[in-house]
Design brief:
Blueprint (H helix, E strand, L loop, with lengths): L1 E6 L7 H4 L7 H8 L6 E6 L13 E5 L5 H13 L3 E5 L1 H5 L1 H5 L4 E4 L6 H9 L6 E3 L27 E2 L2 E2 L9 H6 L4 E2 L2 H11 L5 E4 L8 H11 L5 E5 L8 H9 L2 E9 L3 H7 L9 H10 L3 E6 L10 H11 L4 E3 L10 H8 L25 H15 L2 H8 L6 H21 L1
Parallel strand pairs: 1-2, 1-3, 3-4, 4-5, 5-6, 7-10, 10-11, 11-12, 12-13, 13-14
Antiparallel strand pairs: 8-9
Length: 428
C-alpha cells in the first residue's frame, strides 16, 4: 500500500508564498515515522514542487494551517476526482472538523501519531471512519525520531528541524498553538533528543527546534543545554522575552550553541499585553532584555501583533523606532488574526467584529476583523508600510551594522524578507 503526504502551497503574492527559504513539515515526517513498514511513503510539498503530481498512492494525507485550507480543499477535490481516498489533519481541520469533512473522506483531530496507525488499518480493511480523535495526548517517550528521508532530494533550506516539547503553560488569546496542544507542557526524554541531534549534526550543524517555548521548564532545558555543549551546533528556537531575567539560564543556551531565538514581544503597550494574556512581558524592560540576549550571543527575531484594541495609527512609527533603537536583528509584524479555536476569535465573534471568513486571508497579512483604534484600511496600510520600512536598506544597516555571531543567520534572513516583500508587491 502507498500513502502520499501533501503540504499545500502558499499563494503567490503572499509573504509566506514569496519567501525563498523553505522548511519542511515536521508533522508529516512524524506521521511517516509511525507509518507501518508495509506502507510506501512519499511526500509532495507544493511550496517547492509546483505542478500537480502523478501519483499511484492508495491514500492521500493532507495537513494544512488555516490560510492553506482553501488550497487543501482544492487539492483534495482533484485527488478524489481521480478515485483517491483523502484524509486531512492539522490545525485547521482539528478546529473545524465538520467543515473539513465536506471536502475529504476522513478527518484527524489533534495529534496524529497515536491514531494514524489505526486509521491505516481501518483503510486496509475497508472500514475507514469519517472522524478520528485520539482519546489522549501521546506520551513524549513514545515519539520516534522523524522520518526525514521523505525530504530527500527536495530543495529545502535545511531539514534539521526537531521538537523536544509540546504545549505551552501560557494562554495568550491569539495563539492557535494552545488551542491545538493545550497548556500541558510535555517533554521528550533528554537522552532521546541528544541521540537525534547526534544523527542530525552529521548532515548540518544548524538546528531549528520548532518548540513553541523551549525554556518553559528550566531544569529540563538546562539538562538539554548541558548535553548539547561541545557538539558544535548552531541552533534556533522560540523563547519568551523574560528568558533574559535569568542570566545563568540564557548564558547556558548561548554556550550550547544558540545563536537566534524567536521572541514574542507582541506589543509596546502594557495594557495590551495584559489583555492578550502575555503575562511574561514587561514592555519597559524590552530594550534591556534585548541587550541581555545579544550579550549572550543570541540574536532576536521579534514578533509584534498589530491591531490590538489599544493600537492606533501611531503604533507603526513607534514600532519601527523601537526595533531600530533595540537593534532587533529581524522581526515580523503579524496582523491580529482570529484563528478558529482561539480565545480572540470567540471574543471578536461575540462582539460582532469578524469581517471575513475567507480563510486564505488568515495569513497574518490581511485584516479580517474590525479594529477599535483605526479603520481596517489604516491597519492594512500601516502593516505594509512597517514591513517595507523595517526591511529597507537603511533600517537593516542601523540594526545590523555591529558584528555579531548571529549575523550568519540574520543577514540572509533580512535579505530574504526584503526580496519576498518586493516580489509580493509584484505578484499581488
Amino acid at each position: 500500500m502507498k500513502v502520499l503526504f501533501v503540504s499545500p502551497g502558499w499563494p503567490k503574492g503572499r509573504l509566506w508564498g514569496e519567501l525563498g527559504f523553505k522548511f519542511p513539515s515536521l508533522s508529516l515526517a512524524a506521521l511517516a515515522a509511525v507509518t507501518p513498514p508495509e506502507w510506501s511513503v512519499t511526500l509532495w510539498d507544493e511550496n517547492i514542487e509546483p505542478g500537480f503530481p502523478v501519483s499511484d498512492a492508495d491514500l492521500v494525507a493532507i495537513t494544512a494551517m488555516t490560510p492553506q485550507a482553501p488550497r487543501a480543499y482544492q487539492i483534495a477535490a482533484r485527488f478524489r476526482a481521480q478515485g483517491k481516498t483523502v484524509v486531512m489533519g492539522g490545525f485547521h481541520a482539528s478546529n473545524l472538523p465538520e467543515e473539513a469533512q465536506l471536502h475529504v473522506d476522513a478527518v484527524v483531530v489533534g495529534e496524529g501519531e497515536i491514531i494514524w496507525p489505526r486509521l491505516l488499518g481501518d483503510f486496509v480493511r475497508g472500514e475507514l471512519e469519517r472522524l478520528y480523535r485520539s482519546a489522549d495526548l501521546i506520551e513524549m517517550t513514545a515519539i520516534p525520531s522523524a522520518r526525514r528521508e521523505i525530504f530527500s532530494g527536495k530543495k529545502y533550506l535545511f531539514t534539521n528541524t526537531l521538537q523536544t516539547t509540546r504545549g505551552c503553560p501560557f494562554d495568550c488569546e491569539f495563539c492557535s498553538v494552545t488551542a491545538f496542544y493545550g497548556r500541558r507542557y510535555r517533554k521528550r526524554p533528554v537522552d532521546d533528543v541528544l541521540a537525534e541531534l547526534e544523527i542530525l549534526r552529521q548532515k548540518n550543524s544548524f538546528i531549528f527546534f520548532v518548540d513553541d517555548n523551549l525554556v518553559a521548564d528550566r531544569n529540563y532545558a538546562l539538562q538539554l543545554f548541558s548535553g548539547m555543549a561541545g557538539m558544535g551546533l548552531k541552533w534556533l528556537s522560540h523563547a519568551p522575552i523574560d528568558f533574559a531575567d535569568d542570566r545563568e539560564f540564557i548564558r547556558s543556551a548561548g554556550e550550547a550553541g544558540c545563536i537566534a531565538l524567536f521572541v514574542g514581544f507582541e506589543s509596546l503597550n502594557q495594557e495590551s499585553l495584559a489583555a492578550m494574556g502575555k503575562v511574561t512581558n514587561t514592555a519597559r524592560l524590552y530594550k534591556d532584555n534585548a541587550n541581555v540576549f545579544r550579550d549572550s550571543g543570541i540574536g532576536i527575531l521579534g514578533s509584534f501583533v498589530l491591531g490590538t484594541d489599544n493600537d492606533t495609527p501611531e503604533i507603526f512609527p513607534q514600532l519601527l523606532r523601537f526595533c531600530e533603537d533595540a537593534r532587533l536583528e529581524a522581526a515580523i509584524f503579524p496582523i491580529l488574526t482570529p484563528y478558529p479555536g482561539t480565545v480572540v476569535r470567540r471574543r471578536l465573534e461575540a462582539e460582532g467584529r469578524i469581517l471575513s471568513n475567507s480563510w486564505e486571508d488568515y495569513d497574518m497579512e490581511h485584516v479580517t476583523f474590525q479594529p477599535k483604534g483605526m479603520t481596517p484600511a489604516q491597519l492594512q496600510e500601516g502593516y505594509d508600510w512597517l514591513n517595507s520600512s523595517f526591511y529597507s536598506f537603511g533600517s537593516m544597516y542601523r540594526r545590523l551594522w555591529k558584528m555579531h555571531r548571529s549575523l550568519q543567520v540574520f543577514l540572509p534572513m533580512n535579505i530574504g524578507f526584503r526580496s519576498a516583500i518586493k516580489r509580493k508587491k509584484v505578484n499581488a
